[in-house]
Amino acid sequence: MRIIGIDPGYAILGYGIVEKKGNHFTPCHFGAITTDAKDDMADRLKHLYNTLMDIISEYEPEVASIEELFFNTNTKTALLVGQARGVAILACANSGLEINEYTPLQIKQALVGYGRAEKAQVQAMVKTILNLKETPKPDDTADALAAAICHGNSSGRLSIYK
Questions:
Q1: Up-side HSE of residue 58: CA atoms within 13 Å toward CB?
Q2: I need a surface site. Which of 20, 68, 131, 140 has the fewest CB within 10 A?
Q3: Is 143 a catalytic residue?
Q4: Residue 103 contacts by C-beta under 8 Å, 6 or more apart in sequence?
Q5: Choosing from 39, 58, 68, 140, which is the catalytic residue?
Q6: pLDDT tens-place string over residues 69-98
Q7: First vs last Cα of the chain: how many Å apart?
Q8: 134 an active-site residue?
Q9: Chain-wide mean pLDDT for the chain?
Q10: pTM
Q11: Quick check: is 140 catalytic?
Q12: Residue 43 and residue 36: Cα distance in Å, rounded?
């Protein structure tokens, strides 16, 4: 099963594509899509959508795992991240992917075994599980890979859109 994990953001959207065979994960491609703060929000969202569509088209994941929005105390930031998250969901839906959502707590639980794990612990597990030489950077990329691994370890439970 090929899974794309997405950590939504409007300045940086992390993505990671992994292949799961049996209990083994292999990284296929990962990185971050960035937008310029000087651009209009509509242009930033369009860039996120188009780039994500290109990535999905090239790497052909079968399913998407998207991190749910963690409510930020800054309402404006939460709304903007929510827009980027909606664009990511739309790109996956328009590509015919099954879409699954996981909270940060569920992702931490799936990777570390503890829902209140520190970010560094999750990143260390991503590096170990994918047999990487270095922790993926930026953090958004590691978080996206964690979302993909989370779905691989709990596949089929939380499909919300299809």
A1: 11
A2: 131
A3: no
A4: 67, 68, 70
A5: 140
A6: 876 677 888 899 999 999 999 999 999 999
A7: 17
A8: no
A9: 92
A10: 0.92
A11: yes
A12: 9
